[in-house]
Amino acid sequence: MFTGLIEATGTLIHTERHGPDSRMVIRAVFESGALVLGESIAVDGACLTVASFSGEVFSADVSAETLSRTTLGRKPSGSRVNLERALRLGDRLGGHLVAGHVDGLARFRDRRPDGRSLRLYFDAPAELARYIVEKGSVAVNGISLTINGVSATGFDVNIIPHTASETNIGDLRPGDEVNIETDIIGKYVEKLMGPWSGTTPKGEEEGRIDLDFLKKHGFT
Which of 158, 155, 153, 152 is nearest to 183 (CA)? Predict the structure, then answer.
């Protein structure tokens, strides 16, 4: 698990293709000390495993599934990537619980000044937008952010100067894609409520909590 508080930005040295998979080689400096072989690290929000490291350089394998869900496979050498090491028990949870399991992609649309901060606007597909709620949390390229507003086509967030300078979100240009992880709580609630909401998978018993159900069982 992660918190969405970026520890460092790294530079993608190169990506090695291995059939449907790949291996990313990244240069980064962590103030928290040397990496450990096999530890988890979020790269632009995607949880990867450190496969090897030497000094300031480490490599991580990227599966075909991760390549299909994220922007990692399309990043050119020299790209700046957000990095966060896994949360340790006892650490402060300054952001929100982030699994490092990217749900999909959103597209950066626009930025506007908002005092000393920036308001960034993103377009999101319907399958992601359903879990994005005003004042909820979202991870954008691994950064824990509060959702300021939601529209029919996307959402917007506020970026303080520190976040803009210390992560790659300040480098975005209109049309760029970003990795999105929505709040895991909403997905669990939807799954658990499925049998009562009419969204039960085909072949399973269906039911729906509505006014008729509540009246029938004496709740209204």
Answer: 155
Cα 69 from Cα 128, distance rounded (Å): 12
Per-residue pLDDT of 30-88, as tens digits, reads 887 789 999 999 999 999 999 999 999 999 999 999 999 999 999 999 999 999 999 98
Q: Are 67 and 115 within one domain?
A: no
The span from the CA of 216 to the CA of 7, in Å, is 54
Domain that holds residue 136: 104-185
Q: Are residues 78 and 110 in the same domain?
A: no
Domain match, 75 and 109 both? no
Instruction: Tell me the whole-structure pTM to 2 decimals.
Output: 0.86
Q: How far apart are CA 203 and CA 190, in angstroms?
A: 18
- Position 32, amino acid: S
Looking at the structure, do residues 168 and 110 belong to the same domain, yes or no? yes
Both structure tokens of 5: 């508080």
